[in-house]
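Attaching the record inline, Q. Sequence:
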Amino acid sequence: MPCLIKPVLLSSLLAAGAVHASVVTMQTASSTAGPQADAATYQSTVNAALALPGSHTAVVPLFDGLSNQSVFGGSNQDIAYRYNVTFDVDATEAGTWAVRFGVDFGLGGAVFLDGVPLAFRSTDMWWNGSYADPSQSFQLAGLNIGIGTHSFDIYGLEHCCDGGQQGQFSINGRSYVTFGAADGLTGVPEPASYALAMAGLLALTGFSRRRA
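Structure, as predicted:
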């Protein structure tokens, strides 16, 4: 009699291939642009600078202590920044989110969620390691984030001199966690991982039939 593959085995195989972290990408470029009028112009101004030769891109393990100097060894002035944080949300993580981005954007910046602008500020922003003064960072609460893949984009401009920057999230009122490669966010399996899990199931099914 064939041996049945239990549902728990399927869950275990899929969990092995699940996403357990955010992907944080940092980009910088040289820019002498000044304060912008709205979120859209921050986005377009930064993207235009990043399209020019000499820009830098890196996937970083943790959204903390990031600066052009610390990550790329580059200049500490006249910088355009873009941070992208992409993450998956499952049923246990969907709900009301809060995020905060401690930045050094002396010429202002903007935050987008899934391509939609959430906030912008054209004044000098330097959080200096503290969220006590909300005018010096982006602090957004009451975000309704559902199941699926999402991304934050943070754009900013700095004249001088860039300091370490950070991004964190809180789900349903829990403690803040720093976005990064070990932030514990889990979601649907990546396509390659799903295919690997299904191949494993087929192999186990075939093995059980041979033993019948």
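Confidence is low (pLDDT under 50) at residues 1-18, 187-198, 200-211. The first strand starts at residue 23 and ends at 30.

More tomorrow.
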